[in-house]
Amino acid sequence: MLDRTDPEGAIAAAAKRCSNWGRWGADDVLGTLNFLDEANRREGAALVRRGSSFSLAQSFDMNGPQKGWRRRTNPVHTMLDTGTDAERGTQGFPHGLGGADDVVFMPLQASTQWDGLGHIFDHGLAYNGRRAGEVVTSEGDQVTGIETAAAVIAGRGVLLDVGRAVGDDGELPDGFAITEEHLERTIAAQGESARVGRGDLVCVRTGRLARARREGWGDYAGGASPGLSFTTADWLHRTEIAGIATDTWGFEVRPNEFEHAFQPLHQVVIPHLGLFVGEMWDLDALAADCVADGVWEFFLVAAPLPVTGAVGSPVNPLAIK
């Protein structure tokens, strides 16, 4: 049982039990992505049967969920050159050539994204026991920048539709803490293709995004939400998965399970496990297909943009079945 009055103690104990510091050497920058090896990628690629492809990304536009928390805004897309400019002949190109060009301004974690290993610290320490100030400076993450993972995140994906297996009408209510028991119950209900093991990229559907689509964004970004319980830290460590992503803003249950706490599971799994965490993934169409054919595993390609020194990155994950 969690002592809801003692987040500090629970975080410290979980960090000690689940630490991967030094597991792959003092210079390691990949964390749990070390579990995702060439054999796992071959296994993932072999899962492609029909060639059906699903984008797991939300739209990157001004109609997104962000409301300014920590200066996060929705993406702003602006045209630099347009068809109007081409018609007027003001672009300066010869022989009638015209073109369009554009630019996007956005926080790197405005929509579907990965958290990098430089995103969260524990008492001033980053992944592998490094001092936070020596890892992330005003010039960005000098050690574990998201570009270090640019060629790595492709392998066997598994969808755990906890919303369908445990919830009502395919959705979990806000504040629902997904425990290890819920995850294992979902795996058992979905069958052998939902087994979870070393090197896998696990997608957890809660139904929260489906509700936001139906009812409006509301407090989707930062408000109450279903999500993983703090107690799943040991499961996340024991299964040796490479990464995990959810259809929620913050991955873990909100409100958090402790009094006066903020994202305590992040504080364990990113700096101590070195776990890659994805948020705001759109899993609904993929889930519907998995229900239809009874197969919950697929080839998942989810490379981050190699923005040098970034602590997170937008991503357009592709699940291929």
Q: Which geometry do the CA atoms define?
A: globular
Overall CATH class of the largest domain: Alpha Beta
Radius of gyration: 20 Å
Number of strands: 15
CATH superfamily of the largest domain: Putative cyclase
Q: How is this structure best described in words?
A:
The protein contains ten helices and 15 strands. It has 321 residues and is an alpha/beta fold. It has two domains: 7-69 and 107-320, Glucose Oxidase, domain 1, CATH 3.50.30.50; 73-105, no CATH class. The chain has a nine-stranded mixed β-sheet with strand order 1-15-13-7-9-11-12-4-14. The chain has a two-stranded antiparallel sheet with strand order 2-3. Helices cover 25% and strands 18% of the residues.
Could you write a compact summary of the structure shown?
The chain is α/β, with parallel strands linked by helices. Helix content is 25%, strand content 18%.
State the main characteristics.
Glucose Oxidase, domain 1; 9-stranded mixed beta sheet; alpha/beta; 321 residues
Note the topology.
Blueprint (H helix, E strand, L loop, with lengths): L6 H12 L19 H8 L7 E3 L20 E6 L1 H6 L12 E5 L7 E3 L16 H4 E2 L2 E2 L12 E8 H5 L10 E2 L1 H11 L10 E5 L2 H8 L11 E2 L4 H6 L4 E4 L17 H10 L2 E4 L4 H10 L3 E5 L10 E3 L3 E3 L1
Parallel strand pairs: 7-9, 8-10, 9-11, 11-12
Antiparallel strand pairs: 1-15, 2-3, 4-12, 4-14, 5-6, 7-13, 13-15
